[in-house]
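Here is one chain, start to finish.
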Amino acid sequence: MSKTSEQRTLLVLENYIGGKFVPTWSHLDSYDPSTGEVYCKVPDSGKDEVEAAVAAAREAFPDWSARSPEQRAQVLNKLADLIEAQLEEFAQAESRDQGKTVTFARTVDIPRSVHNFRFFASSVLHHTTDCSQMDHMGCVNYTVRTPVGVAGLISPWNLPLYLLTWKIAPAVATGNTVVAKPSEMSSVTAWMMCKLMHQAGVPPGVINIVFGTGPRAGDALVGHPDVPLVSFTGSTATAQRITERSAPYCKKLSLELGGKNPALVFADADLDQCIATTVRSSFSNQGEICLCTSRIYVERSIYPEFLERFVAATRKWKTGVPSDPTNNNGALISKEHLEKVRSFVALAKSEGGTIHCGEGVDQLDLPECNASGYFMPATVISGITDSSRIMQEEIFGPVTCISPFDSEDEAVSRGNGVRYGLAATVWSRDVGKVHRVAKRLQAGLVWTNCWLVRDLNLPFGGMKNSGVGRGKAERIPTASSQR
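Its structure:
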């Protein structure tokens, strides 16, 4: 096959600006993680494309912000309906683009994307404002919520459409217009959503999608003087750069960053429920979820039993071709990320840790066409000190470490002993202990005897280096409107 004909077989994406698809001359290679082969070309946008998108968003803002919440909600609900009608197509595309299983995309990513639009379309209809009477002066004080303007939204590669829509939906529901930049490694479902905008009744310029890298498109977006609001999900290091670029303009920032989430398992925990759930919380979506459990602290009296049963359960967590419905995990996002995750396992081994299963222990049985894919089995490690990099840094892969503890104070101290504070889980039948420990943990979100149960009405965000700001239906998100 000639290079020209091969080029024609690739999916070529275009930016969506001002209600139209706009081609670009420069593109980035996007890989199918399950095969390691290039299958898509993504625009390598820069300052000019961002400038055009911001201009379109500014032009659309007066009309969109003047519409009633009911009118905006109608558009969001229509977009949700259109995505839902093509759920299977979106799920297949998300799986191929990101590496996750089709089952996970079909049951988690795309349904949650639909729910994001519907939830915020409903929520915006029930907002109230504050009022205070000063009878002695014959005055009434009241608040009015108004849209901010153009929102710059940057979403990550792990839950592409899920997290992109979680940003777009609250921003546009409250009357803002947006310029969004999905990750260049997983852009396809955002592009597919753009095809539905006109049919959904989204006015030109209200939602603009610019594809590209962080250093080019992302930097131009967060540094643009006409973008007063920035919402970002990703690494702490990138967030520091965004903060620096935004500071001269005093932008409103919402930053959802990394996590190094602990699970604290006490001796009175229901081990059947705990082990099944903690395997899922450690390895779901290849461990590529910011809320995944990466440190498991187990009370010493049950530690041997827990470790044995947890390793046995992990061995049943299947990794393989994403289209196989019997597989729990697919491929990691990229070759570079796979090598990074593997390096942490090698570090643990060099430091005297025990690799109970997974990387370097269990071999994957993959078809020949997937031999170059970025697959890694679920991996369990023990015997690592809390000062090790593997216990301190976010791995973002199918790796978890297990350690024993002797007291409640020790468990809390070790759970808090990292620079992150995104989420945690506590396992115990003792209601008093559950509430006491949850309050002491430095985490924005603490689950007790469960994981990933979320109510969008309640705040979401991290402590310490895990983020700035909170998302909540009452203020969707905190930065999306102003008083």
